[in-house]
Each structure stands twice: as C-alpha cells, then as structure tokens.
Write a sequence for this structure.
C-alpha cells in the first residue's frame, strides 16, 4: 500500500513539474502565445449595456481607441483594478478613448451589476455578455482581462493586469489629436 501512495505522489510531482515547464515555455516564447490569440473580428460585437442600449464595437471604428475590460462582480481582483480604471479614465481624452467594461459573470444579475457599478463608480459603459459569446470570441480565460482595440479595429494589446504605468501605456495607443 505504501508503494502505491509513493507512486501517486511521484505522479503528482511529475505533473506539477510538467505544468511548470509548459508555463515557463509559454511565457518565454511570446511568438507561440501570440499564435494562440484570436484575431479581431472586423464586425466586432453587439452587446446590451446596463442602461438597455445596444452597443456595437463597430460604432467606434475610425473614431476612438477602445479599451475592453472583461470582469465579473464576484472577482475580487477585478474590483481592486476598478480604482485604477477610474484614474485611467479620468486621465484619458474621451474624444479618443472609450472604456467598455464587459461583465462576463454568467450568474451575474442586472441588479447586482448595477449595484457594483454604483458602489465602485465604474466609468465608461458596462456591457453584459450573458451567454459568453464575446468572451469566447476574444479567447478570454480569466478575469480581469484587458484588450486595447485600435481605431482600425485591430487588437493593439492584451493583458491580464494593468501595467505599473498604465496611463502612459494607454496613451501611446491613442490616435493623434485632431
């Protein structure tokens, strides 16, 4: 019996080492990671906002850089990042930047989302991806997740956590002032 327990422990250790090696390979090999990311859809998406309006990504084409923030009300890290998002939103030129915060919580209700929106003063538009279609389209696995969409509709950047100097990071993607 002891030998079997040793084998199970050995198997688990091997699995952990293999997982670590795969993680290190993926993080050290950005070219591989890039090929795993979906391309931007030229038509983007249409989602309902918490205010009941239909928002289309296509509406921002050739007008603004769009910051998609995928989040959920049950995600503590998302709620922590919202304070940074508020600062970022205040620092950006609203004629060249738009924030679309996409709630991906399958069981999140509209009253719960609105309560969090009010409590945390989430800026920008809050969109609801109730069936997860947009989340799947953009290959979102965990939240929070950020995608920067250029004026031309292309994906300029994507990341899980806001960079340390997030204001300047976003400003470099803004189109020139007109």
């Amino acid at each position: 019996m002891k030998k079997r327990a040793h084998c199970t422990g050995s198997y688990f250790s091997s699995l952990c080492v293999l997982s670590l090696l795969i993680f290190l390979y993926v993080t050290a090999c950005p070219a591989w990671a890039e090929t795993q990311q979906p391309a931007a859809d030229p038509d983007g998406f249409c989602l309902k906002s918490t205010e009941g309006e239909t928002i289309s990504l296509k509406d921002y084409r050739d007008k603004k850089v769009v910051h998609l923030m995928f989040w959920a009300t049950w995600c503590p890290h998302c709620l922590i990042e919202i304070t940074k998002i508020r600062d970022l939103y205040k620092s950006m030129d609203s004629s060249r930047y738009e924030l679309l915060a996409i709630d991906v919580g399958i069981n999140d209700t509209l009253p719960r989302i609105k309560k969090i929106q009010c409590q945390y003063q989430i800026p920008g538009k809050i969109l609801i991806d109730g069936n997860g279609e947009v989340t799947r389209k953009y290959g979102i696995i965990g939240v929070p997740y950020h995608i920067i969409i250029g004026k031309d509709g292309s994906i300029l950047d994507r990341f899980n956590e806001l960079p340390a100097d997030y204001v300047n990071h976003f400003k470099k993607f803004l189109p020139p002032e007109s």
